[in-house]
Amino acid sequence: NAGVTQTPKFQVLKTGQSMTLQCAQDMNHNSMYWYRQDPGMGLRLIYYSASEGTTDKGEVPNGYNVSRLNKREFSLRLESAAPSQTSVYFCASSEAGTSGKETQYFGPGTRLLVL
Amino acid sequence: SQQGEEDPQALSIQEGENATMNCSYKTSINNLQWYRQNSGRGLVHLILIRSNEREKHSGRLRVTLDTSKKSSSLLITASRAADTASYFCATSYNFNKFYFGSGTKLNVKP
Hints:
- The structure holds 2 protein chains of 2 kinds.
- Chain A is mainly β.
- Helix content of chain A is 0%, strand content 49%.
- Chain B contains no helices and 11 strands.
- In chain B, strands 2, 4, 5, 9, 10 and 11 form a 6-stranded mixed beta sheet that branches.
- By secondary structure, chain B is mostly beta strands.
- Classes of the chains: A mainly beta, B mainly beta.
């Protein structure tokens, strides 16, 4: 069981470039999430997907798009990267929506630097 | 913001002492969770407490929830150097969205 995996681990982009962050989970969870964590701060929710085929905005969705490709995979796309998007991005999954199973499992993170 | 807020921002104690950190939030919740983050790593779930529970234990961890004061506390007893990490509370309002506080950075000195 790999849990939640993320690729890439580290990426440097120039302003205006685009990229997709990949996330996959092998726990058969319905819900998946994308967060960003800026230095010294907590996590802020960018987008989440409560089930396959659905996505919803979180606190800070501007500048991002997501795709829930199937139950396992949830990708985050930056269409035109900006320096303000320099951050560490975490993907998580859970069985949220079912009482008693809201624990989130996190991936190791992707460190993104936008120059 | 609907985020919880942890207090203190940083805490430094000696090994063997107890560590207490607090979380306050703004609106009614379904549940509250505590997570640990070692430097540069992903978050690891520690404990979940529901809105109808007042106290929960897991090993050396004790969590309390006071919904009338909209606050929770995490107590780590007999702390160890390995407990050095950042601790975050996460509040859930609709079972699908979670809001994290900015964390308490705990340093346990050997």
